[in-house]
TrEMBL record:
CDD domains: LuxR_C_like (cd06170). It comes from Chitinophaga cymbidii. Pfam families: GerE. This is HTH luxR-type domain-containing protein. GO terms for molecular function: DNA binding. Residues 156-221 form the HTH luxR-type domain.
Length: 223
């Protein structure tokens, strides 16, 4: 750990004591050249993860994120944390994240704040508080659906981009429940051409049923 002032040491000790009274995860992170590392985590947070503080503290940043967080969500989150540590004007960031707990994945509402800066106004420590959202809460369902949609877009964007403009028009018609004859009339193409497009689209996107058709169309704003 880097050298810290007596005042900062006292503030960190105060936060540690307060953290033990909270029913949320409280994490103190030390900002190093290689990235933010966990300096302290309260008992609530350690129990949720099923780990000891020593195990967490000696993990690399990469191992910590890979083991406990949804990697796709981390892809979106990490630039925000980096901006927080590098910008003198930034003080906090709020976000939702999926955490791999001892009991499986759980959604958390999280706030990360710059806790201390050095004489050069460089961030040296961050404080993160993460509160679990109850699975039965309506917000949890909405956020989980949003996360699933983002994952679907990321995982299928290359396949969708490979469709031609005409194939995207056909996919839109398929999602509306139109048959090949109706598509042919709507788009001024032959019945055979409409059928060929439908077959090619199902192959390119690996569509198994009408549910898959609708999922693609909704995800990419065709309907």
């Amino acid at each position: 750990m880097t050298n810290i002032s007596a005042d900062l040491s006292k503030r960190l000790d105060d936060i540690r004591r307060i953290g033990e009274e909270l029913s949320v995860a409280l994490i103190i992170l030390e900002i190093r050249p290689e990235g933010a590392r966990v300096l302290h985590m309260n008992t609530f947070g350690l129990t949720v993860l099923g780990e000891t503080l020593d195990t967490i503290r000696y993990m690399s940043k990469e191992e910590y994120y890979e083991r406990y967080f949804n990697k796709d969500a981390t892809f979106e989150l990490e630039p925000r944390v980096v901006e927080l540590t590098e910008s003198p004007a930034s003080e906090y960031a709020s976000y939702f994240q999926q955490v791999r707990t001892a009991d499986g994945w759980q959604l958390y509402a999280t706030n990360t704040k710059i806790f201390a800066r050095n004489e050069q106004n460089e961030a040296t420590h961050m404080l993160t508080i993460a509160s679990p959202l109850a699975p039965e809460h309506h917000v949890t369902d909405k956020i989980n659906r949003l996360i699933d949609e983002v994952d679907f877009l990321r995982n299928n964007s290359i396949m969708f981009a490979a469709l031609t403009r005409r194939e995207k028009e056909i996919l839109k018609c398929m999602a509306k429940g139109m048959n090949s004859g109706e598509m042919a009339e709507r788009l001024s193409i032959s019945f055979t051409t409409a059928n060929t497009h439908r077959r090619n689209i199902r192959t390119k996107l690996n569509l198994k049923n009408n549910f898959d058709v609708m999922k693609f169309a909704q995800a990419f704003n065709l309907v």
